[in-house]
Design a protein that fits this description.
Largest sheet: 5 strands, antiparallel
Structural class: alpha+beta
CATH architecture: Roll
CATH class: Alpha Beta
CATH topology: Thiol Ester Dehydrase, Chain A
Oligomer: single chain
Radius of gyration: 18 Å
Number of helices: 3
Strand content: 25-35%
Shape: globular
Amino acid sequence: MHSERDSDHPDQPAEARPTSYSRVSLSLMTGSVHANLLGNIHGGEIMKLADSTAGAVAQRHSGGPAVTAAMDQMAFLHPVYVGDIVRASGQVNWAGRSSMEIGVRVEAQPWNSAANEPRHVASAYFVFVAVDASGQARPVPELLLESAADVRRHREAGIRRQHRLARRTEIERGRA
């Protein structure tokens, strides 16, 4: 999905967008098909929901296709049980020239108890790259931070980016 501006000026990103512009939440009601051999929801199912959420966020922010480049970190905090309603919520934490870091928070709640507060069960950080029709990287809009929490997320995303780049440099240096 491209806007008229995208087709007229493919090298020019859209105007800067606030963090609220591209926030997305996706949900899944878990069943036995999602369970692992221990009877809990398989971590891969949680990862898939988180990646799909991050992809929707990246598509919205960039105004077109974006692909997963990396999953920087996924922390599983609590098990998820068959019958839980799982919700993944994501937002852009940092935007560069063509890449974005998307943070995703995953919560679970028993399907039959709205009285129970959702339980924070996982968090993840994804790096997405916006691509054009030929699969080449394309520019993304700048990110406008709207709150103190956005400023914190942006700062922490910058630290994670520095670590990713330093790790890659060290690995390449060791292979040379």
